[in-house]
Amino acid sequence: MSEKNRDEHGRWRNRTIGFRVSPEEDAEINALVALSGLTKQDYILRRLCNRDVVVVGNPRVYKVLKTQMEMLYQEFSRLCSAEEIRPDTLRVFEFLAKIYREMNTNNTDKQGECGNV
Question: How do 113-116 and 54-56 pair as beta strands?
Fold first, then answer.
C-alpha cells in the first residue's frame, strides 16, 4: 500500500481537484512548472493560494532555463513584429525575466535560491 500524501503541516491530502485546459495553456503551465523547479501540484497550489513561488536553483532548473531561452530566441528570431508574439509565449518570457532579475539581485545568496517570482 502506498504512503498517504501529506502536506508540509502533516495534513492528509485526500481531495482531488481537476480542470480542463487548452493545449496552449497546458504547454504554458508545464513550462512555468518546469522553470519553478516545483512539482506541478505544489506550483499550482502556490499560485492558486496566492503564495510566492520561490525558484531554487539546481541542475534541472538550469537545463530548463537554457532550453526555454533557446526556444524563445528561435521564436523571437522568426517574428517580424512585436504584435506577432503570442500571449502565452510572452507570459513565459516575463516569468524567465523575473527569474533572471531575482538571480541578479540575490547573487550574494550562496544557497542557490533565486527568490520570489
Answer: antiparallel
pLDDT tens, 19-31?
Answer: 999 999 999 999 8
Is 72 within 8 Å of 92 (Cβ atoms)? yes
Which domain range does residue 89 map to? 23-116
| pLDDT tens figures, 70-103 | 888 888 888 777 777 888 888 888 888 888 777 7
DSSP the chain: -PPPPB-TTS-B----------HHHHHHHHHHHHHHTS-HHHHHHHHHTT---EEE--HHHHHHHHHHHHHHHHHHHH-SSGGG--HHHHHHHHHHHHHHHHHHHTTT-TT-EEEE-
Total structural domains in the chain? 1
Q: Is residue 52 part of a domain?
A: yes
